[in-house]
Amino acid sequence: MIKARIVDIKRMAIHDGDGIRTTVFFKGCSLKCVWCHNPESIGFKTQLSYIKKKCIGCGECVKVCESGAHIIENGNHVFHREKCTGCGKCEEVCLGEALKLYGKEMAVSELMPILLEDKDFYENSGGGVTLSGGECLMQADFCTELLKELKNNQIHTAVDTCGFVSREAIDKVMPYTDIFLYDVKAFDETVHIKCTGQSNKIILENLRYIDRCGKKIEIRIPYVPDYNSVEIEEIARFLSGLKNVTKVKVLPYHNYAGSKYEALGMENTLPEKIPDKEVIDKVEKLMRVVGL
Ligand code: SF4
Ligand code: SF4
């Protein structure tokens, strides 16, 4: 049975497409954006997050961890991340809620009962289910199975993608996807590489392809000062040439995710500078000027 690594399932989501939705976050991303505020979804492997200030030193984790990743030393809890195999046993017993496992393996049959719970809300609000990440299309076979099942249950489907995926992956999910939520981070290739570690050639080609196929597309542009802020006019001009863009959202960067990087033992790459309101207003005006 095919399974996927899932980071989180967010019910009553209102920013991941139209209406009230449930969003499934997949683990693993094909890009590595410097401003990523979901570091738990970047890597493909299961990860344990440990928030030191929540730990009450109860020692329950020490009793269940077969890898010896948790120890109590001089009355204090110490976590040896390098020994963790991601089994999740310690999360279940942690009294301080200091531990959280990201990347549980789930089958479509395990996800569907959760996704069906809010079906009435989807129907009454014009919502549905969104597959997100990470990059959900890095697990395209699983997404296809899940989307098929959702359509069998007459549920509206959205796929949130960064676009840095194979054409094959897009073709697999296309018949069962009502709308693509598509990130555009930069038009200039050099800027894109600086921001994400990868070229944007495939991303822009895939976007043109989805548009040619006549699928609805909602564009998302993260706005990050000193990184992609110089790109906005070019992006707007490019988007104005597409036919099936139903909405463009400009997402002002925020730097709240620093503590998540620390809890996961990852290097924090978040830029310092956040955009001010007037700049965002100007960007929105620009989008309207080019007809978006
Ligand atoms: S997830 Fe498993 S291996 Fe990792 S620290 Fe917890 S109990 Fe140990
Ligand atoms: S179980 Fe949780 S609260 Fe208790 S020592 Fe381990 S990490 Fe800390």
Overview of this structure, please?
This protein has an eight-stranded mixed beta sheet. It has a two-stranded antiparallel ribbon with strand order 3-6. The chain has eleven helices and twelve strands. It folds into two domains: 3-45 and 106-256 and 273-289, TIM Barrel (Alpha-Beta Barrel); 47-102, Alpha-Beta Plaits (2-Layer Sandwich), CATH 3.30.70.20. The longest helix has 13 residues, at 140-152. The mean pLDDT is 94. The protein is an alpha/beta fold. It is globular, with a radius of gyration of 20 Å. The structure holds iron/sulfur cluster (2 copies). One iron/sulfur cluster binds at residues 55-61, 70, 77, 93-96, 98-99.
Return Rg in Å. Answer: 20 Å
* CATH superfamily heading of the largest domain: Aldolase class I
Strand order of the largest sheet: 7-1-2-8-9-10-11-12
**Total number of distinct structural domains:** 2
Order of helices and strands: EEEHEEHEEHHEHEHEHHEHEHH
As an assembly, this protein is single chain
- Cofactors, ions and other ligands in the entry: iron/sulfur cluster
Mean pLDDT: 94
Task: Sketch the major β-sheet.
Answer: 8 strands, mixed
Keywords, separated by commas or semicolons:
binds iron/sulfur cluster, eight-stranded mixed β-sheet, globular, 12 strands, TIM Barrel, alpha/beta, Alpha-Beta Plaits, 11 helices, about 290 residues
